[in-house]
Design brief:
Layout: E1 4-10, H1 17-30, E2 35-43, H2 54-61, E3 74-78, H3 84-90, H4 97-110, E4 113-117, H5 132-138, E5 142-148, H6 153-166, E6 171-177, H7 186-200, E7 204-208, H8 219-228
Parallel strand pairs: 1-4, 1-5, 2-3, 2-4, 5-6, 6-7
Helix pairs in contact: 1-2, 1-8, 6-7
Length: about 230
């Protein structure tokens, strides 16, 4: 079977990458696949089991991962809530990109489906010369860009898509996420989708509403991901 790997990146930090990763995992499981979630670099945590751990969130809210250990779903981990370059510096070290790249390549070769989740936005520095976007082709993955649904997202999303395109990253599409703090009227969301699709030629795969139950809500988004990504 041909591997299907996706790398969820974002227009910024806090835009909903982890929620999108979770919904994508649910979509892959619903399609009869056996996906693996992997966070290449986690910052802002002392351990994988900390409250802010993205891997812990995904494992807790994806019913098909019940009983699986999130420890295996994180590569490098640094306590400071910063870009990997600076989080590693604060820890008195540097990101070993040789090790990181080989880990991504080995995982991609060994697994049928992987949902990789980046740290921060697409151009967040991992080292002085490597950005998060540079990890995507190394992982043999297609990028899914998580973006806010509301005001300002057109510019942020188009800039991110342009940057990824210039780096020859294969982009599967965009997912727009509503935020509980400032839920956007649907008419504006539609306009944002129209602008992004018309100017970039890249599809907005779905929108994600504010979710109360992460394990069971968002079924429309899960179904849209299955259909639009042909899972």
């Amino acid at each position: 079977m041909i591997p299907q790997h996706f790398f969820v990146t974002g227009t910024d930090t806090g835009v909903g990458k982890t929620v999108v990763s979770l919904l994508l995992m649910r979509a892959l499981f619903a399609s009869g696949k056996h996906p693996f979630y992997f966070k290449p670099v986690q910052t802002g945590c002392h351990t994988v089991l900390d409250a802010d751990s993205d891997a812990l969130f995904v494992h807790r809210h994806c019913p098909d991962l019940a009983g699986c250990d999130p420890v295996h779903s994180v590569g490098l981990l640094y306590p400071a809530p910063k870009a990997p370059l600076f989080a590693a510096r604060d820890a008195g070290t540097v990101v070993d990109t040789t090790l990181l790249f080989s880990t991504l390549q080995e995982l991609a070769a060994a697994r049928e489906c992987i949902v990789f989740e980046g740290a921060g936005g697409a151009l967040v520095p991992v080292t002085p010369t490597v950005t998060m976007a540079d990890l995507i082709p190394v992982a043999g993955a297609r990028a899914i860009v998580a973006a806010r649904s509301g005001l300002g997202t057109i510019n942020h999303t188009l800039l991110t898509l342009e940057a990824l395109t210039r780096r020859n990253v294969d982009i599967a599409g965009v997912v727009m996420v509503q935020t509980q703090q400032a839920e956007t009227p649907w008419a504006m969301v539609e306009e944002n989708i129209e602008a992004v699709e018309q100017q970039s030629g890249i599809p907005v795969l779905c929108t994600v509403p504010v979710l109360e139950d992460f394990a069971h809500d968002g079924n429309a988004a899960v179904q849209a991901l299955r259909e639009r990504l042909q899972l």
